[in-house]
TrEMBL record:
Pfam family, one: PfkB
Domain Carbohydrate kinase PfkB residues, every copy: 162-279
Domain of life: Bacteria
Protein's name in the database: Carbohydrate kinase PfkB domain-containing protein
InterPro entries: PfkB_dom (IPR011611), Ribokinase-like (IPR029056)
Source organism per UniProt: Schaedlerella arabinosiphila
């Protein structure tokens, strides 16, 4: 498979402020990254552990969107479900039915990731804290299969005591995805620009520095590329916007697009994902073409702005 998403998947049950409920929405950070890749290609597979209810709930979505489920392995008697409560002020509370450790135990093993890879694999995405054996294994797989590796770091790993370890991996990570809040936590600063400068200095490769509604910066080759958000988009549900943009950036990197175009493809993918609750029921060719055009529009809006790190 050309793109492999190594992730734990879940089901979201969304309770809106008006009392209505949206049930059985596929979710998780990695699933939204998968959706970001799927905006641009159907050559994508997901691998990870699941519970017995997962495929009965969601297999139709995978079939409609030509996304392989061969990498999903039945491993738990419980299917992770996250109940999301929205309140009138726009805030939300997430209530998972299992703990974080149990959730992460459903991540695919390195060998299970490799079972989804072949010599045609271009990119592998992983959402992880700092798990050295796991990261080392996937980095080793780059030599075996020739793929590029994206590591989207989890927030709980972003502490100053992890700086040296995280920075030591950046030479082997083709695209490192982190949001500005996580970056400031990592470097123990409230100065976004300082955190960005330190990441740019630490990584010889791409850093996708996500900035919420302001879009993102793509740090590459000693330069900062501005990748603004798509203008005029009504955000229905911002869940997964950052994850989906990460997946799209990995796709852009692997397909040979320049850093700013890849970053703006991330903005376009996020615009697709936040336009409804959950991910679209069906990804279409029309959607793909529109996303490419929106990415180009974002570049024009930025004026191809870039500056030295």
């Amino acid at each position: 498979m050309e793109y492999v998403i190594a992730t734990t998947v879940s089901t979201d049950e969304i309770h809106l402020a008006d009392g209505s409920v949206i049930e059985n929405q596929p979710g998780s950070a990695g699933f939204y990254a998968l959706a970001g890749v799927r905006v641009f290609t159907d050559k994508v597979a997901v691998c990870g552990g699941i519970g017995p209810e997962y495929l009965p709930r969601h297999e139709k979505w995978y079939r409609r969107n030509q996304v392989s489920t061969k990498g999903l392995v039945l491993r738990s008697p419980i299917s992770p479900t996250i109940v999301i409560h929205y309140f009138p002020d726009g805030s939300r509370v997430d209530e998972p039915n299992i703990g974080l450790n149990e959730f992460r135990a459903l991540d695919p093993s390195v060998d299970e990731v490799f079972d989804c890879c072949d010599r045609n694999t271009k990119g592998v995405y992983v959402f992880k804290a700092v798990e050295r054996d796991y990261l080392d294994g996937l980095i080793g797989g780059k030599l075996r299969f020739g793929y590029k590796l994206m590591w989207e770091i989890s927030e709980d790993a972003c502490t100053p005591k992890q700086i040296d370890v995280i920075e030591s991996y950046l030479k082997d990570i083709d695209v490192f995805s982190i949001n500005r809040g996580e970056a400031m936590l990592l470097y123990g600063t409230d100065d976004e620009a300082e955190a960005e400068r330190r990441l740019a200095k630490a990584s010889p490769n791409w850093v996708f520095f996500r900035r919420g509604a302001q879009g993102a910066h793509l740090l590459a080759g000693g330069r900062v590329y501005d990748c603004p958000g798509v203008p005029g988009i009504r955000a229905v549900d911002t869940t997964g916007g950052g994850n989906s943009s990460s997946g799209a950036v990995l796709y852009g990197c692997c397909e040979g697009y320049d850093p700013q175009m890849a970053g703006c493809m991330g903005s376009a993918a996020a615009a697709v994902i936040i336009g409804q609750f959950g991910v679209p029921d069906v990804f279409t060719e029309e959607m793909r073409c529109k996303a490419f055009e929106q990415a180009k529009d974002c570049i024009h809006a930025a004026g191809r702005a870039l500056h030295d790190c």
